[in-house]
Amino acid sequence: METVSRLKLGHVELDAPFVQAALSGYSDLAMRRVNRRFGAPYALNEVVLDKMVIQSGKKRKAILQVPEDDHPVGGQLMGSDPEVFAPAAVQLAGAGYDIIDINFGCPVKKVLGRCRGGFLLSQPATALGIIRRVHDAVGKTHPVTVKMRRGMDDSARSQRDFFEILDGAFTIGVSAVTVHGRTVRQRYVGPSAWTFLTKVKRHAGDRVILGSGDLFSAEACVRMIRETGVDGVTIARGCIGNPWIFRECRALWRGEPLPPPPSIMEQGEAIMYHWQQSLALHGATLAGRIIRKFGIKYAEHHPYAGDVRSAFIAVKTPQDFDAVVTQWYDPDRDWPPVPRREGHGDLIAAGATMVLHRRESR
User: Fold this and answer.
1) 249 is a catalytic site residue
2) Residue 69 DSSP symbol
3) Do residues 311 and 298 touch, judged by C-beta distance below 8 A?
4) 150: which of 2, 233, 267, 269 is 20 to 30 A away, CA to CA?
5) Cα 245 from Cα 283, distance rounded (Å)
6) What's the helix, strand, coil split of the chain in %, to 5?
7) Do 165 and 128 touch, CB atoms closer than 8 A?
8) Spatial CB neighbours of 124, under 8 Å, sequence gap ≥ 6
9) DSSP 3-state assignment of 343?
10) What is the pLDDT of residues 135-186, one digit of tens each?
């Protein structure tokens, strides 16, 4: 039986080592609430530009709203100017975010072209300048964490830059670093190098390292911790339309059998809860576009996954969405058994999801 341990991110203590990642275009309040329902102990808001936090406007107002039931929550910042990061971090901390996370991992071309995200892994001095300013601004009251990929590419220089930033970040005082096992150049192609995570954790010692990459099932999440020694995992694409992964992770971590797949009734209830939360948050027009992406992923749990996916793709109006749920998630119908969703078998579908993700990020 696995020893049940708590994960500490500075003074924020979590009762399970499974984190919902920041996902651009996905991890809004509605998604976070659904994932918390099924066991996510900590969730990050979708990444936001530092400039967007300090400039007035509707987006800033939405970013700085943190309701009482959304804790602990992380605010993830991305940008290129060390001078802007600190005031943005102060705004997030003041709004109620429990942890400030710095994104040095985004591999999207538009982001790299503007010297943000993963690009900063090739600029250790700038990256460490950003970390230092953020930590100086909020580090006494809020844990500061960093998200990284394993480097820009597989070159020796890239690896040296990675460890220079990693060691410098911990010296400055960050509470944890999340490491994704792919390079920036890989983007979402090819396997995540879990062996690199093992190397990083051995190097880091008792400092907190979270692992990320190819976590599409509870089995994979627990296996990453066991095989690499990381202190916890950050689940990204694997929890889109799959909030039950957190419940399953907790069960396996406690040494219990894997829970049965979510029933048709449970799936329908989760989808409708997500839909209602999204409507309240965004209004019908935007919520309709957002929930359609989630519906496509929720469909993977259904015994008629292909038909349900097609039905969600065809949704044009809120009424269409309600009709799909009414038809395909009727608890009184005699449905075939719900299939067990296989972890790495989701990679193809995940690739399709990331096409939607990239479009949303433009």
Assistant:
1) no
2) T
3) no
4) 2
5) 28
6) 50, 10, 35
7) yes
8) 161, 164, 165, 168
9) coil
10) 999 999 999 999 999 888 889 999 999 999 999 999 999 999 999 988 888 7
